[in-house]
Write a structure and sequence with these properties.
Elements (H helix, E strand, L loop, with lengths): L7 H4 L3 H17 L3 H4 L4 H17 L6 H15 L11 H13 L2 H24 L6 H79 L5 H28 L23 H10 L3 E7 L7 H21 L5 E8 L3 E8 L15 H11 L3 E6 L5 E8 L14
Length: 405
């Protein structure tokens, strides 16, 4: 008994297996035998019941042992067909076994099963000829043979088609996972390079402040104190960014080939207005709204917030097209910044949208590294909403983006 108290032979049979086996047995009993018209009695009836139960029971384990079940069913059908008392010609049960072999076995094995079914077709033709008058035997033999060959061929082809469809679906799923993983790895490398620029800038500021403090060490102690304060602040920021950079590289030991450090300043929320302008020029209406008091963001978080807006607006231009209306909301709270981009989905959709559909996967990885989170979902109006929540570093106010209409 298994954990549910069922016998072992039934523990592997699902409700679908039971339904298929029972349906096949009923079809064979009432359509491919004379039991409904002759109603045998005594030993003949018990023999017929035993034959039907054997075919039914064999199909219950067809998923686990498809080839073995087909062999058992084939031998069973070969032995049953010559019996003339009940005129029992098993058809549905062998077809179910053949379909399972075509679905689960290799091509050579399934082709052998199809050829074996030709024997059943020949036996059925010979049996049909024996029951007809001499002048009609030839026609009855060929008609019966063609019927069973067509039935077995269609069943086998359906099983092979289902197998190829499953393999294709599995290949697509595997390819999707590989592409998503590659997108995440590429995003990690890109983030590491950007954080390298940020850390390098902080270290440069520290060096310059230290050099200036050393020159006025004896003449201007107040200025030296200010310089040391700037050095401390820049050092804390550099250490935080360095930790994020190491996190970004924790799963990537090999750096991908590229241009390396570009030396260009990294964009942030202060550049959102310029980004919105380029999208508006493409025919998309964009409204920006700022709620709350802007606060300080670490450089990597500022860059991540910009990337959220950039990716969301890029997706709108790619998939919705000109004429769409987008709202960009920045909601500042004491400890968090919420970036929300919502479109109405009512643009002139482009005929061909060139996209790998993995931008959000890389963006989600970027936000996780800086301590944020990302959510993307469809809205009732038919558009799309992208929401990102990012940590706020400190209380210093800034004005990174103005409301834009």
């Amino acid at each position: 008994m298994d954990r549910r108290g069922r016998p072992p032979w039934l523990s592997h049979a699902t409700a679908a297996d039971l339904a298929v086996a029972a349906s096949a047995a009923v079809v064979d009993v009432f359509l491919f035998s004379a039991v409904s018209s002759r109603k045998p009695e005594g030993a003949g009836m018990w023999l017929f019941v035993a034959l039907a139960v054997i075919g039914f029971a064999a199909l219950l384990v067809r998923r686990r042992h498809p080839v073995l079940v087909f062999c058992v069913v084939w031998v069973w059908a070969v032995l049953v067909t010559p019996t003339s008392e009940l005129e029992f010609q098993p058809t549905a049960i062998p077809c179910v076994a053949l379909f399972t072999v075509a679905l689960r076995a290799q091509a050579r094995v399934s082709a052998g099963a199809l050829l074996a079914c030709a024997v059943l077709a020949v036996l059925a033709g010979l049996r049909e000829a024996a029951s007809r008058p001499p002048e009609a035997r030839l026609v009855a033999t060929y008609a019966t043979l063609v019927f069973y060959l067509l039935v077995h061929g269609c069943v086998w082809a359906g099983g092979r088609w289902a197998r190829l469809s499953r393999q294709h679906a599995d290949d697509l799923e595997f390819r999707r996972r590989v592409e998503a993983h590659e997108a995440v790895v590429a995003e990690r490398t890109r983030i590491a390079r950007e954080l390298h620029d940020i850390v390098a800038h902080s270290v440069t500021v520290m060096v310059l402040q230290a050099a200036g403090a050393r020159r006025v060490l004896d003449t201007d102690p107040v200025r030296v104190g200010h310089a040391l304060g700037h050095i401390e602040e820049a050092g804390e920021q550099a250490m935080g960014e360095l930790r994020r950079m190491l996190t970004a590289l924790r799963l990537s030991d090999e750096d991908e080939s590229g241009d390396g450090v570009t030396g260009r300043p990294q964009p942030g929320l202060a550049d959102v207005e310029h980004l919105v302008g380029t999208v508006v020029a493409a025919g998309v209406r964009v409204h920006t709204r700022v709620e709350g008091e802007p606060r300080r963001l670490a450089a990597s978080v500022d860059l991540a917030a910009y990337r959220v807006v950039q990716e969301a607006l890029t997706n709108v231009t790619k998939h919705v097209g000109p004429g769409a209306c987008v709202e960009v909301r920045l909601r500042w709270e004491p400890d968090e910044l919420t970036v929300e981009v919502i479109d109405d989905g009512r643009g002139r959709r482009p005929e061909l949208a060139l996209s790998t559909n993995h931008g959000l996967a890389g963006l989600r990885e970027r936000l996780a590294i800086v301590g944020g989170r990302l959510a993307a979902e469809e809205v009732s109006s038919g558009g799309f909403r992208v929401t990102a929540v990012l940590p706020v570093a400190g209380p210093v106010a800034s004005d990174p983006v103005r409301e834009h209409r």
